[in-house]
Structures are given as C-alpha cells and as structure tokens.
Design brief:
- This protein has 8 helices and 5 strands; from the N terminus they run H-E-H-H-E-E-H-E-E-H-H-H-H.
- It is elongated.
- With 187 residues, the protein is mostly helical.
- The model has no long low-confidence stretch (mean pLDDT 87).
- The strands form 2 sheets. Strands 2-4-5 form a 3-stranded antiparallel β-sheet.
- Helix 2 runs antiparallel to helix 3.
Amino acid sequence: GGNLGHRIDRGDIVAFQEQLVRGRNAGVGTSLPEAVCRVALLARIISASKGSPGLSRPTIDQLMALFNAGVSPAIPSYGSISAADLVLSAHMGAVLVGRGRAWLGGEEMDGAQALRRAGLRAIALEPKDGLGLCNASAPSMGHAVVTLGTLADTLLVGSAAAALAYQGYGANPRIFDARLHAARATP
C-alpha cells in the first residue's frame, strides 16, 4: 500500500502492533458460541505453532495460555473488510492485549477481566504480531469444525432412525445387494 516505504520508529512498534489489532476490531452482532470461539483459538494456535503467520514466541505462548486457562476470545458474528476473517481474527488478538471480549466458564466478559480471572496478564505485541494475528481464517475453521461435529451427530441419529424404520417395516434386505447396484449405470 501507500506506506510500503514507511519505516516505523523502533519505539513505536509495540503501539503500532496493538493499533493494527484494535483498528480492525470492527465486528458486529452477537458473539459466536463459545465452542466455535474455542475451536477458532485452537486452530490459530495450531497454525501459529507451524510458524506460517510469523507470530512471536511470546504471542504464541499467550495464545496457548489462554486456551489452557479456558479463556476463549469472544468473536462477533459479523465482520467484513479485506480477505479471510481479518476483522473476526482481530477480535481474537484483542484479548491478548487486555481488550475485547472473552468467554470464560460459559460467561462472556471483558477481555481484561477474563485475563485477571484466569491469572494471566496482557502482553505487548512484537513486530509483525498485529498482522499475524489478524490475517487468519481461524473463525471460519471454528465454524467448520463445530458444524462437522454437529453433522456427524445428526448423521448418526439419522442412520439409527433409518435402521429402526427399516426393521419396523420389515423391509427386504436384498435391496442392498451390491450386484443390484452394480447393474445400474447410476452410482
């Protein structure tokens, strides 16, 4: 962008990183369910531990400390600028610096309050942490994992209901013969 050649003074790096996160905390709507937020946090930890987002070790450690303490950043249900989940992921990063909202024990609260209750402190972000925290698709991953879990349960119940109905109606099991299906052109 227009600031490509602009250098940030060393003394302003921490403030700039936090401002990157704060400036993108523009999500709206009710928070996503705690389970989705928790899985999103875990997805971010897994991605960060592979080194791809370039997050500093203290930031990764803080993400893991949140997870281990049962704190999950509360992510709003809507956000829309840029690519991926930029706005929604920024809400995850906000809790690291004592801002935003968080889930703890089924209760949504101020991020700083959740850190205190969990015995954690806000951290100062290091160079490139701001962008690394925002540039992720962890909230979408959280949705996908929780949805797949729900779908698996639904398919299991559906299979059981079909089997009971099949038994109850005394259906003919020969319809499942593989030779019958192989004789048809439709897969």
